[in-house]
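call fold(seq) -> tokens
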Amino acid sequence: MNATERNGIKTLGLLSGGLDSTIAVKLMLRLGYDVTVLNFMSPFCNCTKKHDGCKSAAHQLAGELGIEIKAVFMGEEYIDMLRAPKHGYGKGINPCLDCRIMMFKQAKKAMEEIGAKFIFTGEVLSQRPMSQMRNRLHQIENESGLKGLIVRPLSAALLEPTTPEKMGWIDRNEMLSISGRSRKPQIEIGREMGMDEENFCSSGGCLLTDGHFAGRMRDLLSHTEKTSVAQTRLLRVGRHFRVSDNCKVIVGRNEAENEKLEKMAAAGDLFVRVRDFKGPMVLISGSEHGPTAGDGSKNAAALAAGIAVRYSDAPKDEDVEVEVITPGSAANSSLFSRAISESQIEGMRV
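ret:
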């Protein structure tokens, strides 16, 4: 089958914006397929790319290549899955297998909507132990309802024939035979394709594999029955302290984080800030600003004030004035507090 004949074969590619998926898309276009791409994002994408991240890179590439791109954001349904993934977690709180199955189920719907004959990806055999070993690839196909319909051009010459190959839509001799964790073959192919070397990174990473972030996510899930996307985004910013089952205190670490916290405050949240001394913006986040669990003599605002003093330039051994700010209201108040002790603060740190 030549390129002219293939031009009538519509395919759907998964494009993250990283090197592997970019090579896969360019290869399929070079072979003459009619390509549409799908770009997935979740609240836990941690792209390491310069500029505006992998979503921007994927859309920019699609524009350069003149192909249609569809964006899919996996939000609260992804967080719900994260609470109890069928196939468990990796080293952090990353549900890699369930994540891929969820993505491919979404891709299957999109494939059917646009009339594509199959899906292709930039996956590389044995590159990622949780989702790209041979048995895992089969499992993902079966559980997503796409058995035989996922083509992996970078490794297809090493994998079992897919339905598109059996139908004559794919020629195995035109597919690649890359496997393993080394990225040298992809980098060489990227150079041959004329790609800018600043794009030779992977598609980024997942915050759920990061031990520190995973700890914060576990804390959030254990203290919320229904977790919002906005709550997960807050986990990226500042120092976090759990002051009660329903309430956290978040301390900006620099001016940029102070500004982010101000923008990310939800209805009912409060801020505290030390008056007359340089210090952070401190967000009281949660539905409970009253007595903290197990200690009716102290409330969240008082604890947040002590934390604010602790991270400010104010003297640590005397009471200083702290503003309590209600976003969107002029009815602010103040209280006097001194710095919380190191032992107290460590017991609350998330």
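The mean pLDDT is 91.
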